Amino acid sequence: MRELIREIIVQTCAEMGGHIVQGVLGRDHVHMFLSIPPKLALSNVMQRIKGRSSRRIQMEFPELRKRYWGRRFWARGYFSTTSGNVTDDIITQYLELHSSK
Question: What's domain 2-99's architecture?
Fold first, then answer.
């Protein structure tokens, strides 16, 4: 399932003109360092990533459809910051720290 989630996110970012600089798929969360065109709103990017991945995962794994019926597959929110506020190296270190968990 993790590989399918990764594939869906990579594909969705590419379709929107962006890419994943680095990412970590945890057991119950995802950390991503994205590069997206400035013309795109991050909220729209996240909406598409979460919506498409949720739909495809539930289609591929019918048992999850029953489990999440009427509930959300992903949490409602997300955290974001720009690499102008913190350096790319700090973001990369953060992701590397979370990849070992």
Answer: 2-Layer Sandwich (3.30)
d(CA 60, CA 15): 21
Burial 75-87 (b: 16+ CB within 10 A, else e): eeeeeeeeeeeee
- Best CA proximity match to 13, nearest among 37, 38, 39: 37
Output the pTM of the full model: 0.76
Q: Say what the pLDDT of residue 87 is.
A: 78
DSSP secondary structure, 4-23, as one string:
HHHHHHHHHHHHTT-EEEEE
